[in-house]
Design a protein that fits this description.
By secondary structure, the protein is α+β, with helices and mostly antiparallel strands. The chain has two domains: 204 residues, no CATH class; 210 residues, no CATH class. Helix content is 54%, strand content 15%. The protein has 13 helices and twelve strands. Strands 1, 2, 3, 4, 5, 6, 7, 8, 9, 10, 11 and 12 form a twelve-stranded mixed β-sheet that branches. Strand 3 and strand 4 form a beta hairpin. The radius of gyration is 35 Å and the shape is elongated.
């Protein structure tokens, strides 16, 4: 029997039992679609988390552990490593700093950096420039908002009380200084690192730059950035240095990280999280695929039933085929082809349905989750809940078709054992 005749035989009998075959295909479709959509959640969450890490500016940064500044020898060694752009030491000044501007005050944390090294990095300023000498500063994006007088404090206290009664909170964004701060002078008082009290003596500094807005809405930045020339003027300041190594490309972070570790430097990079996340999500996705496969196995019961009924109903035809010389392997192949086509049709429909469901999930679910949590919950719009890569489609399709063929194998073997005489005696 030619291959096209075999196909004709299979399709002819599938058409005879349209309802039963249709319901079996739908069962296979549901099982396969459940597997794809369920596993797509693992792929979607993995992509979202990895994207969040990779979109951070710190992704090309390597943090050097330790509470002391690098020696000149160490700094020179690290700087000479291929693809290292900048070795920047930030000195966090001990205690808070009180800023006085007109009738307003605020308290801030502060850091001092080597401005030449800082200037080699992408700009972190929204307006202005970096401080060039000891009496210039750059301030955080919310520095003006944090400059409050007594009237502002009373208003914030009242609004916070009203917000608390409504189970919300007030961030004070409507108060604070509303004028221009750039190139204005501000009085700063440093804190004694031993007594943690402000020194009586204040110093005048000029605001020459304002830092970028923080990445997250809940972050309030009213910090102060100094040039490290400050330590020449304020000799009694205590600071805590932290060193960050900047690599010129994401591709070279891990090689630089490995070289530093080989030379006994204690270092860490956010990129290491990705390796850990990949392992976690691999296990997570395997678990989801395993659960989804169970649904396909349940659908396989329907395929087994359909194929068993097909063999029973076609006993006489099988006898005729054997009588005219059809081999057992050909008869088995005919029934396996039918079960494979049922699995294939179910898989094709499942892929179409899965992509549609994935689109709906990504469009609707973020809004549903945000609404269900509360108005104060983080914005879920950037979260991708479902992604269907081609590898998942091929894997789910392969499992579905394989299970379909496996379900038809037993009935197909049964068909090959039907005796010709008995089959031909069966009444139509």
């Amino acid at each position: 029997m030619l291959f096209k005749d075999q196909l004709s035989f299979v399709f002819q009998h599938m058409r005879k039992n349209k309802l039963r075959v249709t319901m079996t295909v739908l069962a296979a479709m549901i099982g396969c679609a459940f597997l794809i959509v369920l596993a797509s959640v693992g792929f979607g969450l993995q992509e979202t988390v990895k994207g969040e890490i990779l979109n951070q500016e710190s992704v090309t940064e390597i943090a050097l552990w330790g509470d002391s500044a690098l020696s000149q020898e160490d700094e020179t060694f690290i700087q000479e490593i291929d693809h290292v752009n900048v070795v920047l030491t930030r000195n966090e000044i001990s205690g808070l700093i009180r800023s006085t501007f007109e009738d307003r005050e605020t308290e801030s944390i502060a850091i001092a950096v080597d401005i030449e090294d800082q200037a080699k990095l992408p700009s972190t300023l929204s307006v202005g420039r970096l401080p060039k000498n000891a009496n210039e500063i750059a301030v955080g994006y919310h520095f003006a908002q944090s400059l409050l007088n007594e009237k502002d404090r009373d208003i914030i206290e009242q609004k916070s009380k009203e917000a608390s009664e409504q189970n919300t909170w007030y961030d004070g964004s409507e108060e604070g200084y509303k004028g221009e701060l750039l190139n204005r002078e501000v009085e700063l008082q440093f804190m004694d690192s031993e007594t943690f009290e402000y020194l009586d003596q204040s110093a005048t500094f000029t605001i020459v730059g304002i830092l970028d807005e923080p990445d997250y809405e809940f972050q309030i930045d009213n910090s102060i950035l100094f040039s490290d020339d400050l330590f020449v003027v304020q000799r009694n300041l205590v600071s805590y240095p932290t060193t960050t190594i900047y690599v010129d490309s994401l591709d070279y972070v891990l090689p630089v990280l490995d070289e530093l570790k080989e030379n006994n430097y204690q270092v860490y990079s956010p990129i290491e999280q990705i390796k850990e996340l990949d392992l976690f999500f691999l296990i997570f996705k395997i678990g989801l695929i395993f659960i989804g496969t169970i649904s396909i196995l349940i659908a396989s019961i329907g395929i087994f039933n359909t194929m068993t009924m097909a063999v029973t109903e076609r006993t006489r035809e099988i006898g005729v085929l054997k009588a005219i010389g059809a081999s057992p392997s050909m008869i088995q192949r005919l029934f396996l082809m039918e079960s494979a086509f049922i699995g294939l049709l179910g898989t094709i429909l499942a892929v179409i349905v899965s992509y549609g469901l994935s689109y709906v999930i990504n469009a609707v679910l973020p809004h549903v989750v945000s609404f269900a949590l509360s108005e104060d919950a983080p914005n879920m719009a950037g979260i991708t809940f479902s992604i269907i890569p081609m590898s998942l489609v091929l894997l789910a399709g392969g499992i579905s078709i394989f299970v379909a063929i496996l379900s038809g194998w037993r009935p197909a073997r049964k068909a090959t054992k039907i005796e010709v005489i008995q089959a031909l005696r069966q009444e139509l």
